[in-house]
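Q&A FORM
Asked by: J.P.
Topic: structure of Phosphate-binding protein

PROVIDED:
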Amino acid sequence: MTRRSTLLWIALITFCAGQTAVAQTQVDPNLPKYKPQQGISGTISSMGSDTMNNLMALWAKRFNDFYPNVKIEIEGKGSSTAPAALTEGRATFGPMSRPMTKAEIDKFEKRHQYKPTQLGTSIDMLAVYVHNNNPILGLSFEDLDGIFSSTRKSGSADLRTWGQVGLGGNLAKERISLYGRSASSGTYGYFKEKALFKGDYRDSVQEQPGSAAVIQAVANDPVGIGYSGVGFKNPGVRTVPISKDGGPFIAPTLENVSKYPLTRFLLIGVNYNGKQLDPLQREFIKFIYSQEGQAEVVKDGYLPLSAVQAKRQLSLVKITFEDY
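REPLIED BY: S.T.
REPLY: Here is the structure written out as tokens.
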């Protein structure tokens, strides 16, 4: 990650922490309402994050209500597929659950002579999931490192059974089954950086093809544990409260968004030369930051942006609320 990307990420999360409006499920009424424009047609292609795949589909469906003749193609095979697709012109948008790395930015810039633009579209909390019958009260970052990592850079013990993290009864001697994402996933990279202290995953982590697959695997395994976006929760699993640096256990709930330690922005990459967006590209971006677009964020189980946050993101591509 470049210093610029790191600073942007920190600024976004810091700003998130100060916004009480974000912790509500209501869309900010100060966001503009979307108004369709004349003469908009063509094809939009999206390649990237599986975490954002359903959100992109919801946006596409609602956008098609305004523009039935616009064709929208969506492919979600992991965040690391987005930069190359943007660089090579194979995608209009590159949704990602992490910022681009320095190497990804450099490849794009070498080809286009300017840097790619990533816009924060919504807020996710990366949750740790266990089977719905698992009574674990909470896990620390050190526990997660000891469970998922082979390197245990936090100094954690080698944690392989549920008894080693405090469970008694029938689960105490049971080995923990591990589920996660593939290396192409931004969620894989984010969890590795934060919860594994940039260490390595165990070979025993069973990589799943998508976020929903992780949740389903845990729901089917009474001794399983996995990680995925909070928007993928289903009745077969429960989220585990997490603690960091010896602090209290914090659950990934709307009320806790400002203090939950695995909060992140969901991003969308765009090839923007700093001058002008393609009309179709521009309208889709405007739609994302409208009341209608952010309503789809809520529908998918993520947190919408405030009007202030939306303005800041739109300013990166020279769009203002007055353009609606």
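FOLLOW-UP: Residues 125-252 form a domain with the D-Maltodextrin-Binding Protein; domain 2 fold (CATH 3.40.190.10).
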